[in-house]
């Protein structure tokens, strides 16, 4: 995790974030100066940012919107106050509507980013200045400290080459907090095909089977927001186990980048929120699934079923059966 400290100072009306990166200053600066890179980590998990305008010049503005998994939106606008590449950046960050018009009665903050070379890479010190104690308290109450930590945990995947970051590491599980986990898997293939493999029944049936010895007996996909999906599996031959399935509703479909759906075991009331994101770089696609559970006990119970191992078996089959024939190598 790059964040080493987050602290607030009520007397000086500041919040300070210190983070260390295993990358040179120039590489870190590039991540903060390119909206396509910045939007991969500016919002916390489940709230990815999209920068809709970008003018990184003194007096210029950048606008962005963070999109929550249930359709929530939160937008902001930066005004660039100082730029000294690659070591210093200063912006005024304020709440705005999606067109970039500032919102009244919401706090703004002046953010200073300083980047310094270290033997291990780069240290960033980000100091946010507030106009009043009330503004600082409001931002903290909105979850800024924890949100910053979770957002910054995503930057390692940005600073490294995608294959260097994830290739050969299989399906990885990260416990974010008591109710959220993040699962990542790199597959060698174009994002558009990976998207289709997750949303078209004729492709889903070929790979989303878990360990060998199981077959998918029912596959109903949701093609529009609000529609329901339903998948059922059963053991083949002498394979032990009983038939089971999952169902849910599509809350967001943004092909070929992001889909959000609810999920529950057929016949059970417990429901999770599954947020699928696909990012492609140099012909490889990073699959990221953020799962929200109702509580820690449910999270631990589901993970104990061997879910991650089953997902790895499915991803390996996705590579063999769908992506390799398209020209990728497993």
Automatic annotation (TrEMBL):
Domain Activator of Hsp90 ATPase homologue 1/2-like C-terminal positions: 23-159, 190-321
CDD domains, A to Z: SRPBCC_CalC_Aha1-like
Domain of life: Bacteria
Pfam family, one: AHSA1
Family: Belongs to the AHA1 family.
Name of the protein described by the UniProt record: ATPase
């Amino acid at each position: 995790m790059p964040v080493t400290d987050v602290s607030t100072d009520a007397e000086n009306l500041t919040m300070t974030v210190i983070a260390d990166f295993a990358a040179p200053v120039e590489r870190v600066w590039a991540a903060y100066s390119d909206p396509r890179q910045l939007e991969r980590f500016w919002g916390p998990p489940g709230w990815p940012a999209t920068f809709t305008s970008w003018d990184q010049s003194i007096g210029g503005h950048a606008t962005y919107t963070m999109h929550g998994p249930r359709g929530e939106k939160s937008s902001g606008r930066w005004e660039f106050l100082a730029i000294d590449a690659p070591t210093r950046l200063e912006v005024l960050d304020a709440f705005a509507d999606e067109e970039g018009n500032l919102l009244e009665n919401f706090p703004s903050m002046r953010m200073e980013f300083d980047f310094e070379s270290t033997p291990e890479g780069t240290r960033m010190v980000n100091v946010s200045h507030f106009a009043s104690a009330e503004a600082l308290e409001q931002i903290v109450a909105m979850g800024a400290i924890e949100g910053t930590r979770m957002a910054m945990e995503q930057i390692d995947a940005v600073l490294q080459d995608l294959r260097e970051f994830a290739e050969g590491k299989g399906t990885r599980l990260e416990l974010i907090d008591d109710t959220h986990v993040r699962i990542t898997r790199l597959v060698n293939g174009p994002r558009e095909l990976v998207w289709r493999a997750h949303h078209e029944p004729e492709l889903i049936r070929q790979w989303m089977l878990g360990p060998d010895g199981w077959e998918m007996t029912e596959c109903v996909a949701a093609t529009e927001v609000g529609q329901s999906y339903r998948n059922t599996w059963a053991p083949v031959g002498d394979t032990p186990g009983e038939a089971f399935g999952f169902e849910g509703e599509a809350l967001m479909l943004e092909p070929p980048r992001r889909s959000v759906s609810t999920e529950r075991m057929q016949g059970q009331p417990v429901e999770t929120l599954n947020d699928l994101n696909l990012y492609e770089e140099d012909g490889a696609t990073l699959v990221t699934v953020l799962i929200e559970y109702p509580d820690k006990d449910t999270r631990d119970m589901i993970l104990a079923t061997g879910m991650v191992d089953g997902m790895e078996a499915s991803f390996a089959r996705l590579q063999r059966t769908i992506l390799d024939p398209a020209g990728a190598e497993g």
